[in-house]
């Protein structure tokens, strides 16, 4: 099952299909899409007793949307992403993911939410003593996928990021670009509902960057909400349907109106 | 099973077995624990045996200077005891046995045939006979007015008490060693958590539960502890066997009674398993408590 899903994620030519919701599950998904898969309301973040790193963040990300998060260094992009992938709780305000308040969420429920979010860390965070194959397979193993069922999707993912012949290589023996590709493969292997990527193309050549964006776009086409933090302004024009969020000194600007609430009904805010 | 005991799981914590000091610390602790446990079990067994055997033995002494009257009273007492309820055996010590008993104190020169020696009758009692010792003593006094009843339990009970105390002390040492083992496991678990903090963070971000993370550590630590415990127990068993031989060579009745019964050996063999289970439990609690501090 997972293998098929992962394989499907790799198929760039699959067109988005948005039919009228019929089942209760589909209606719930449609309702979530309409109300936003991510909602920040007056969110502030302060580390220790210092000044607020992020202030008054209020925005909504539509389910199935593609968002670029830009801003100068130190603007707070990584901090925002941390709250998004539940690595950091805000100091104030409300955050809703998948329709549920996650600020007061019991700790025991966090893993369930995190399994629905794929993360590409800025520093990759690959586990150095695991092979590329095992690093990519880790989310599936955590989710309880049988060993026999994860081999095919992991190998397909390795092939997609151009590392089919590096499956048994360990991160310290991989170049920066190769490590980044492994990190991306690991983030998307489980077909997350939200993919959060922090500078995912920072260490790859333009051709690989284009391929990775193509992969993100394919995932987005299949319904995954994509949030990519990047410095690369050239990247912003590569995805036609993408919206841009700009952070400046901890405050969010909305130059395209993409973050208004409620989002537009076509799925791309 | 999520992150079951698979090759993949084992690869998540890469340090080879015995990489840290914990298995060897556990080995030393198990060595001392097994010695203390063996000592305690042997003491307990010896105390029970002494209490049971010697507590049912009584000596009747007829102390009279006149040999004819002494023999008369001793004979009457022996005949009475032979048919007394609760008495399994009543045997009068012969002259040769008396001299053998006295030779260490008096030497050959002191064993003058003119020296008046008491007549001694060794009595073995049943449990019921032990309970009615007062009535037996009264009956003996009735036929042998100069007889004196020496209850072995009277002088053996302080020794049994001492042996029992030493056994309890050994038990206390075993408990303390268990606590020290648990403390060593706590330190090892915390150290392992710090070493693998980055891996844990990544796993958490991918949706791993605390139970899944704790399972990695508890399995690893329990296996390390089991290995150390087996090494420590083997060393302790070697020492116990050597000590047993030395005790056997002494040949003393009381010291010789210190021996490990079969059940005690079984208990000793179970100690590594108990250490492994203790390590597993402590590691699980330690890791989960530490993880709760994180988001």
Give a summary of the structure in a few sentences.
With 269 residues, chain A is of the alpha/beta class. Chain A has one domain (2-253): 3-Layer(aba) Sandwich (Rossmann fold).
Q: What does it look like?
A:
The complex is a heterodimer of chains A (269) and B (295). With 269 residues, chain A is of the alpha/beta class. Chain A has helices at 2-9, 24-35, 77-84, 110-114, 132-142, 147-160, 176-188, 206-221, and strands at 38-46, 52-61, 66-70, 92-97, 100-101, 117-120, 194-198, 225-229, 243-248, 251-253. A six-stranded mixed beta sheet of chain A has the order 6-7-8-3-9-10, with helices on both faces. In chain A, strands 2-1-4-5 form a four-stranded antiparallel beta sheet, covered by helices on one side. Chain A is globular. Chain A has a single domain (2-253), classed as Rossmann fold (3-Layer(aba) Sandwich). The radius of gyration of chain B is 31 Å and the shape is elongated. Chain B folds into two domains: 7-51 and 165-292, no CATH class; 64-145, no CATH class. In chain B, helix 2 packs antiparallel against helix 11, helix 3 (67-82) packs across helix 6 (133-143) and helix 9 packs antiparallel against helix 11 (262-292). The two termini of chain B are 24 Å apart. Chain B is of the alpha+beta class and 295 residues long. Chain B is 73% helix and 8% strand. Mean pLDDT of chain B is 84; it is low at 1-5. Chain B has helices spanning 7-12, 22-54, 67-82, 95-110, 127-131, 133-143, 152-195, 197-205, 210-250, 253-256, 262-292, and strands at 57-62, 87-92, 119-125, 147-151. A four-stranded antiparallel beta sheet of chain B has the order 2-3-1-4. Chains A and B meet through helix 4 and helix 5 of A and helix 1 and helix 8 of B.
